[in-house]
Design goal:
single chain, mainly alpha
Length: about 200
Amino acid sequence: MPFNFPIFLTWLRIVLIPLIVGVFYLPDAMMGEVYRNIVACAIFMLAALTDWFDGYLARKWNQTSAFGAFLDPVADKLMVTAALLVLVQLARIGAAIALVIVGREIAISALREWMAHIGASKSVAVNRLGKFKTACQMIAIPMLLYYGRLPFVPQSFAIDTRIWGLWLIYVAAILTVWSMLYYMKVAWPQIRERGRA
């Protein structure tokens, strides 16, 4: 198993996942709701930054590896799934939204694995629609973890992350379904051909 700084950042992201969840189980005497929200949001944002940096540094330093390519999306999916489960438990999003997003990730991961097995992985590579979906999702989740008005913002420009986060997670859910249909459409000729074999 190779080990370098980009892979360390990926492992760090995995280690941060239980902290995002654990913050909400701390006793009220240790940390009130407002501080829980701030800390969970900060941890998620730190984890999201490691996601960007590990890929950037791996390419810049020519430290890409098959193991890193495997571990990175696993860490991403674990992080998003954990955060969505917390948000469902806190009643900040509906279970249906979480199910759509997590279900799509499972389905597309399985599809990509199957397509790689038959030598057609490039046809289901990440596209712009998937990247836009991920961007909406990665902005919405910390907003919903923070769950309040942003401080140090003039009242006339007050940003309530509860509203913005909810709208963005709805957009992410719609794009999730759209991108899944796109990938299925691209893969359908292979699925149909193999089904006949």
